[in-house]
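[job 4471] stage=fold_predict status=RUNNING
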Amino acid sequence: MSFDIKLLDVLACPVCKGKLVLSKDKKSLLCRFDRLNFAIEEGIPVLIESKATTLSLEELEASR
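[job 4471] inference complete, writing structure tokens
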């Protein structure tokens, strides 16, 4: 099951309410402002702050 890219128009970061972007590998959504990585499991984004991983500046730049 893949993530529906059209959902990016309506989804927002649960922390800052900012825009989310799809990672290069299409397996997670990224909040560049908060440097958070939200996994996509079975086509469904897991937008729970406690389950997100924090990205280093290097990881964030590599995800562009």
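[job 4471] summary: The mean pLDDT is 92.
[job 4471] exit 0
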